[in-house]
Queue: 3 jobs
Job 1
Amino acid sequence: MYTSGTTAKPKGVLITHENYLFAGHSSVLYQQLTPDDRYLIFLPLFHANSQYYTSMATLVVGGTIILRERFSSTDFWNVVDRYQPTATSLVATTIKMLLEMPEQEKEKGHPLKRAGYGLFVPYPELLTFQERFGISLYLWYGMTETITTNIVTPLYEEMVRDPENGIVSIGKPGLGHEVKIIDEDGEELPYGEVGQILIKGPSLMKGYFKNLEATSQTLQGGWLHTGDSGYMNEDGFIWFIDRSKDLIKRAGENISSIEVENIL
């Protein structure tokens, strides 16, 4: 699988069958899926989300996959009414689009009760979405190099916000994972201080395809250097701040500034 990775130039990420299985089993746990669940998937299948967090989870638990070619805000509730999904995965863009739609009769009384999502959504919009549609939202953080969602919002806990800025936490370390925040010298930072997010766990890539230099920079001492900055509080909740690399976010995708320069 190819990805922009934790640095700008696209690289090939080496992923094992064990990685896929762990991603599936851990995602079942995070989302509390059962064989009776019907998962609505419309995000691109080349993306880590649709491969690891949703498809693999549904296959592992023995549920049903409802696979759609694309997302349509105007047809979304018709799809829900027709196929009766119980879970789905969203991004900030789709959440905003659904909130901007006029109220519809089919957005009430449906079986769709939970949805994972990625990227920043303001807390008031999250509350409005949950109250209007009756869908519980949980935030998750992961990347192609880490395979599964390494930081997740537990379904059994309320969304935690920073008391000073009101931003919602991306969650706590997932199953079998450790997370720490370091400074530019590689020293672990105290709670509340911003630095690079490092992840250690049972589901990391083997390395980058034919790129030992990039592999040695990203994987050090069992820790994966994400290239993302954030901070952690005393309860283990983590906040994402920004990418430390030059990447552009567009519709949930990472676009390298180098790629843009090459196109231009």
Note: The longest strand covers residues 223-232.
Job 2
Amino acid sequence: MAVLTVSTNVLSVNYTDEQGQLLDTLPVCRDFKYGECKRAACKYIHLLDDHVEITDMRVTVCRDAVSGKCLRNSCKFYHLPIVLPHPAALASSLAL
């Protein structure tokens, strides 16, 4: 049985833009990478998977995983640790 490990700051990260569209890349926390992030509400990705590719301290979001279709064993792209609401629902809540 696989154990899912999720970072404690997943709800602090902005996964979408102002219109509720999923971002293509997300910034990685440099401090966490070196075991030194003390921010409980850090807005950067606390990357737990060592197989995810980092370029210029950013990870690329796996669009296949978002749609539930990623079949790669060790995907080099970042799999979101939470399920995001549909963009239309997010946009309507932002308009309130």
Note: Residues 87-94 form the longest helix (8 residues).
Job 3
Amino acid sequence: MAVIYFMKFIPLLTIASAVGLVSLRAADKPNIIFIFADDMGVGDVSHTTGKAATPALDRLAKEGMRFTDAHTTASVCTPSRYGLITGRYNWRTRLQKSVFFTPHDKPLIKKGESTVASLLKENGYNTGVVGKWHMGIGWQFKPESNPKSEDGWDVDYSKPAVTPTANGFDYFYGIQASLDMAPYVYIENDKAVAIPTVTKAFFRKGAATQDFEANQCLKVFAGKSVDFINQKAKEDKPFFLYLPLTSPHTPIVPSKAWLGKSSIGKYGDFLMETDWVVGQVLEALDENKISENTLVIFSTDNGCSPAAKIGELVKMGHKPNGDLRGHKADIYEGGHRVPTIARWPKVVKAGSKTQRITSLVDFYATCADIVGAEQKVTEGVDSVSFYPTLEDPAKVDRAPIVMHSIGGMFAIRQGLWKLCFCGGSGGWSTPRKAKKGDPKWQLFDLEADPAETTNLYTENPEKVEQLHALMKQYIQQGRSTPGAAQKNDAEIVLIKEKG
């Protein structure tokens, strides 16, 4: 593994980006599609040992580039989505642990805050999002509204809401959050497509429209995505489509056509249906003859959830998170290392792989790099372009990245070293905190010990201090990339555990 260390904000980080930028200016701007699965681990795809067939994802890997060391910014939904879309770590916002659960959760992206969509729109793109948003919808509420209610019955669905169309997207069709969080209603642009009239429960009870069924969402999202591609392919502008799926997150509800298709039960069936959506997108690109200059990226918002019954899957030979430690919600690798593939036939070498330590927060700067946009000092403050890596997988330079658990615990990764600022998972797997007598933090050599079995904290005090100092710098500067210091939205507490 190539290892390059950066301890100061130095301009070297921008050199490779600049080279890539120049090389593309003479070419047409590509269409860009980002498909974001929900709660899916590195072992859930068949080309990495998965036991459920994922032919579309296998095709992407065969025709594109696999990022074998790619990470979400957090190990749960809402924060990892924020990092992807804004190029900024979620812990700089008011959301410093957990996720959004209710209709009363206000939009996390601030008014006027730059997003990948607004960046691309300013550079001539049509922009759309189809699927699960989960960063807060600004609903209007009835006079008798209860801020603590979670069922959605106090929302005034007849009035417009603040949706992704306020964040640079020309078009939105999707749902507020996960499929187990009310209300169960589709939203188009800034309004609900219908007024809920019944109560349904896909784990949590809540307001729903009569025709909303959780097991039909993937089919709906696939159809809307293909419609978007077909329409925009006819226009003289490139397009950006963000496709955040609801699967294989709970409820694990494959549609009737996919039941029994895998050998590992409903979870495997749901993986196969998720892969089918990817296949529908690829077919639409082929039919419109625009595959060559379309960048398609597939990734997921965090690792597999224990709700999938990981232990039972492992007994059947399927390891959702591979041999990594932990799962969704954790600071361990199983929580945030995710399958990531990029296909762009015009630029990316087929069947290639890269070991670049990549954070999905890098998507923002990558898009800016591709279209030749100059980022403002306030934008994408934690994002580093991987466009040079798309051109050459051997280009693996990346400053240290930061990961965050559901409990708000931090980890920083530099080269082979990973320092967790907690003594346990910081999430759902045990131990959640340091056991009595154990070191307060954890230091792992991920090259020698990718499963994080041996804590090297006491043996390497200098490395611990170095990474601790760098993490404090990232917090204090309000950014982790070169540039003028910025303000965080709230006070950030790095050390949350006692003892």
Note: The CA atoms of residues 151 and 205 lie 6 Å apart.
